[in-house]
Amino acid sequence: MLFIDDKDPGLIPRVLCTILDSCVNGVTLADPDMEDLPLVYANKAFADMTGYTQEETIGKNCRFLQGTDREQEERSQIRTAITNKEPIEVTLRNYRKNGELFYNHLKIIPLFDSQGKVLYYLGVQYDITTQVLKEKEIERLSGRLASLKNSF
């Protein structure tokens, strides 16, 4: 869907920011024309999820959320997708401002202009920590159950 803006040229960005700030998931925009693809927008849900204010986030590449936990295969998958200007979905181990681990299901979508040039990379972040921890607990209990069955 395209917006036709014959009104105030700043109306659409203001309306979109209001809409995005009411979302429950994190939403970010990274600028591919700037060095290191820094964030130029982060909504309120992103700040709530990470514990970082918008002032602490804007101008940084999102990888700061990984802290020192850089050995994640998904990082190279993201680099490849960005190089190829393709969308990608991955789950990363990220860390809140207070150091707490959370699992971030990240969807990155390149946004193109009419000439096919990437204007921004849209990032949508889903905190799936509860789901991941429950899956790990199910695996642990299933393993325990299997070992108990084998002992009989």
Automatic annotation (TrEMBL):
Top-level division of the source organism's lineage: Bacteria
SMART domains per UniProt: PAC, PAS
Keyword DNA repair annotated: no
One Pfam family this sequence matches: PAS_9
InterPro entries: PAC, PAS, PAS-assoc_C, PAS-like_dom_sf
Domain PAS: 12-85
Keyword line: Chromophore, Flavoprotein, FMN
Coiled-coil region: none
Domain PAC: from-to ranges: 86-140
Keyword Flavoprotein: yes
Protein's recorded name: PAS/PAC sensor protein
Source organism (scientific name): Nitrosospira multiformis (strain ATCC 25196 / NCIMB 11849 / C 71)
